[in-house]
Amino acid sequence: MKKHTKKLTFLFSFLIGSTTLAVLFIFCYMELALPNVEQLKDAHMQVPLRILAADQQLIAEYGEKRRIPVAYEHIPPRLIQAILATEDKRFFEHDGIDVLGLLRAAAVYAVTHHKSQGGSTITMQVARNFFLTRHKTFSRKFNEILLAIKIDRAFSKQKILSLYINKIYLGSRAYGFQAAAQVYYGKKLSELNLAQLAMLAGLPKAPSSHNPLANPVAALKRRNHVLMRLVDAKEITLPEAQAAMKQAVTATYHGTDNQVHAPYVADMVRQQLLKQYGKRIYTDGFTVTTTIQPKKQQAANRSVTESLLAYTQRHGYRGPLTNLGQPSDGIISLWLVALKQFPMVSPLIPAAVITLDDKTASLLLRDGRYVTLTWPQVAWARPALRDGYVGKAPETMFDVLHVGDVIMVRQLANQQWQLSQKPLIQGALVALHPDSGAIVALVGGFNFSQSHYNRVTQASRQAGSAFKPFLYSAGLAKGLTLATIVNDAPIVIEDPTAEKLWRPHNDDHKFNGPTRLRQGLIKSTNLISIRILRRIGLNYARNYIRRFGYSDEQLPVGLSMALGSGTQTPLQLASGYATLANTGYSVKPYIIDKVTDKNQQVLLTKPKPEEEKQRVISPQVAYLMTSAMRTVIQEGTGRKARILNRHDLAGKTGTTNDQRDAWFAGFNQQIVTVCWAGLDNMKSIHEYGSQAALPMWIDFMHAALRGQAETPLPVPADMVMVRINKHSGEATDDTGKDSMFEVFRKQYAPKAIAHQKSADVSAQNSNDNAGATLF
Known about the structure:
By secondary structure, the protein is α+β, with helices and mostly antiparallel strands.
């Protein structure tokens, strides 16, 4: 018996020892196979890309996960109490695992054979969220336990809690409690009350089934459970919990709160960063501060929208989108379904005509509201005929609308509704600071959701007469003056780039005879531009105009260059005009002021002025061109801008062949703004730059310059004022109506007659006769 007992004891001891060794071996093997928890020191939280305006207002956010990291010291203590009371009440006591919790989970499994309770501590959840999957398996649970022990040894409890609070998924794309506070309540964590904090604290267990948006009844029950756990933990009193329980569920979905509407800016910045840094921009917490000024951006949005809608009204009504037939009982609900098929194109809303009489129409909007359309807001709708020309003006509602028509309407500032339609024409506006090149406003089209094509940076179009200031600058640099006489007369040219003789003409098909250069620019005379180019030489002109940022490919090797037949984007044209506005320095437009990562490390900053800025034309030439372009606004093709009642604005219209492109580009010393209108398919818009683009520019500049004093034009050295004869351009002592003052570079000024002296420009500010309001 003793012999058998010894054998059994030995066998039992061997089995115990072998099992222990095996367990230790498995433990050591799995321990070695586990990830290094030291990675959590620099834990990678997927934080979306945020793009901000210059004043830190949000323009856009890009990223699959919405996360707003919050430091431990900024976490509300009441939230920490609620999380611990609900998820892990012995968190500050255990070593990463709660043995009692694990035993309880094992007992439940033994009875139900379901892994309904995991016994997970907060530390175990951190291990799972950072290193493991969510699949409920025993091997994962074992790894989770081992990792939790390692994490608890390596980090403080505060660090572990911070990782948990910032990492955990809480439903509705919200990762972390700060993001959840924004998604469900539109607030920061520090702004939430007890009931709201308890609601969030109840989400980790089941963020989908306890989601207050998807299942408010279950969410309310879970919130109240959290409140009672706080009572049990003696963190709050029962009356406090009862008061919180009486509060209704106030959670509603709060999308990304874009405070500045600038989608073309956001996409432009996103693409630039994607090219430079790759896809990590969506996860690494990049924050971009742009140069966009919100008030100017808002003005740009409005100017482009209103200008294009005004254009589409001038060119007639194209008719309804479809007709839904006659309304009847029960059909309205079907109409709502049908209206949902027509997208909103802000600010336009689809609507269906329900009833109609001579002067009013009742409408059902896409969102279910009923509104009334009155005759004054429909009277514009003459039928649009071929090529943009319109038909006979309507007399009653019946001439325009029919019951069942699906139309587009918009709400005006006076709250009335107006018949409208999506413009076929597109537009673009860019405004920048002439000294630095910082872009302060940018709109790349009528509606970003309908077309992501950014016409400010991507649409390379002919500039027409808006290009002429660069050619005139080349002429002035070579010795021409604003008083130089050029013959505005018919011309026939054998151009080597053309297959036949070229007979250019002015837009009005009129000829003005001998004309001063200033007048040639004021009237935007094509034949004078061509003769200037012939006089100074094509090669010289092309070399000089490159100084404004043009490449050889953009400058035609032919006389058509004088008429702006080369192509450029609105942004490039704005850059060239900035050189004139800032007295002759080249500038490189930019929109990104600073880029930081999630650790606030600066990755990219704006260009340094001393590195980017260099003089490319003389201040005297810039002064003369600015003076002439100010006269364009006071007397020439830009004279509609006189409504702004400013004398410091300079600009130029531009219209290309067959009226395919309409431009207005203008500036003062504070801002350069370029506006463009045209069709993406390059067809004619049947309007000039002064009709389609100038109103957009005026509307924007009115807002952009509000409250800003006029800026006098600084006079460079070696400039003189001479009284000249308007017709000959020569110096005169006649003070009659045929004379005027003109400004010259001293070496090119006409010789004064014996008893007349030329005067320094800075000593005079004459308003005599035409062309004298120069400064």
